[in-house]
Amino acid sequence: MTVPAELRQKLQQYRQEHVLAWWDRLTENERRQLIEQLSSIDLDRLTRLYAEREHTYRPPDSSRIKPLAIVPADAPDNAAMRAAGEETLRRGEVAALVVAGGQGSRLGFDHPKGMYPIGPISRKSLFQIHAEKVLALGRRYGKQPPFLIMTSPATDAETRQFFADHAYFGLPREEVFFFCQGTMPALDLATGKLLLEAPGRLFLSPDGHGGTLTALSKSGLLEQLRRRGIRHLFYFQVDNPLVKVADPIFLGRHLAQRSEASSKIVPKQGPKDRLGNLVLVDGRCTMIEYSDLPDSLANERDANGRLRLWAGSPAIHIFDMDFLARVTAGAGLLPFHIARKKVPYLDDTGQIVQPQKENALKFERFIFDVLPLAERWLVMETSHREEFAPLKNAEGADSPQTVQAALTNLAADWLRCAGIEVPRTANGEPAVALEVSPLFALDAEEFAARVDRNIRINGATYFV
Ligand code: UTP
Question: How far is 378 from 250, CA to CA, in rounded Å?
Fold first, then answer.
């Protein structure tokens, strides 16, 4: 196999021929794979991104940032909203999409994060908990919502195998859709050269959760789902087992507002919480990353001492399918965010170098950059306790321990709503592990209707 002349010429034009330095020593298979990788990257775009590296995102000036109107969690019209949301589920107009393409580097688990056994008693994986919620929705409303799983080359094969090994957790096979997000190469910070991770292989990483939109569209799934009448896409992250998948109240509000992009928010616990901030910028719903929110604004408080910008994002959204079709029709779509990272690479002598400081630029798209493109939006409050406990780290905050405690707390709250108390420690936390299978109940109301009110909780209890 030889390098196609056109490709060689393009590499020369963009001064990236070094990626062929090991060509003579590659096997035929390695050559084919390298050609495939090189043909799929857009050297022109990369050159432009490199040229812009110093002019990366600048947060909007404080005077342009305002608080958003937010529907409170306990709004008086929740019952009507729920009825409307349930109707759209009964009509089969909703799909659920989980993004599971991340590398989960902070958790340090050897498999895709979705495979992490998080159930405090059951040890069910994140994937199983999500899949069972989708299954339970189908049973409750008589129409099975399709379940879309976005993977990346790093998680794709293992994720598909995991679902197959577990018979798709009871979901009909034809309602489970895997699609793989794109990748982006990393560039050497000093020279803009493509980095190799092996003689015949570029260093590539997933292109960010914003890659969802391009991948949905490219895979043909967006059109396929629209054709079968799916009108709303419920979007969530694989690391949050508390998420209320396709929450009917949220859906009802999204419908009532004719919203194109709806978001849930959780009240920030402090000004510098590591959460995206949902705000208005120039009159549009916009997310500003915690690291980009000017300190003065982050610390502003109202007369009651409450943070003025208090809306943190748990990355829970509903997108209108026509809106997604409209925004994905544009060529450029979402911007790339540029990050300086340490990336191990193959040097000129064929040695892998582990850099001590940032040596590379990585490029990612973020899903929330689509929010300001919406003409109509809706923002609704929820709470950490009810709906947000992400698994990010191996220890400390957002770790298996805190996520399992959150699952136990949620079950204890549902038990209390049903009039059943649980043994508690001196500081009021449940003293035993508790867990509710999504197939037993999806929310406090369903739990109260199903649980035997005469039970006594004396030890770890799993409702299944
Ligand atoms: P995070 O940004 O928290 O990344 O992803 P992560 O992969 O879970 O963990 P770290 O940062 O490497 O430790 C938030 C959500 O977005 C998904 C993740 O799978 C997770 O559900 N994601 C992230 C993607 O699907 N693709 C990406 O390229 C990045």
Answer: 9
What backbone phi and psi angles, to 5 degrees, belong to 453? -70, -10
**Mean pLDDT of the residues in the chain:** 95
Contact of 143 with 89, CB cutoff 8 Å: yes
Ligand 1, atom 7: nearest CA belongs to which residue? Answer: 102
241 lines ligand 1 (CB under 6 A): no
Question: Measured in angstroms, how far is the CA atom of residue 289 from the centroid of ligand 1?
Answer: 15
Convert the pLDDT of each residue in 168-220 to its tens digit.
999 999 999 999 999 999 999 999 999 999 999 999 999 999 999 999 999 99
206 lines ligand 1 (CB under 6 A): yes
User: CA 409 to CA 434: how far, in whole Å?
Assistant: 8
- DSSP lists the bridge partners of residue 148 as 97, 177
Q: How far is the CA of 74 from the centre of ligand 1 (A)?
A: 31
Query: pLDDT tens digit string along 232-270?
Result: 999 999 999 999 999 999 999 999 999 999 999 999 999
Among the atoms of ligand 1, which is closest to the Cα of residue 102?
Answer: 7
Q: Compute the distance from residue 371 Cα to the ligand 1 centre, in Å.
A: 19
For residue 137, what are its two tokens?
Answer: 């929705």
Q: How far is the CA of 268 from the centre of ligand 1 (A)?
A: 21
Q: Which amino acid is at 106?
A: R
- Whether 130 and 98 have beta carbons less than 8 Å apart is answered as yes
Angle at the Cα of 293 (from 290 to 298), degrees rounded to 5? 95
In this prediction the pTM is 0.96
CA–centroid distance, residue 363 to ligand 1 (Å): 14
Domains plus CATH for the chain? 5-40 (no CATH), 62-391 (3.90.550.10), 399-464 (no CATH)
pLDDT of residue 331: 62
Taking CA atoms, 416 is separated from 61, 64, 326, 388, 425, in Å, by 46, 44, 45, 19, 16
Q: Whose CA is nearest to atom 16 of ligand 1?
A: 209
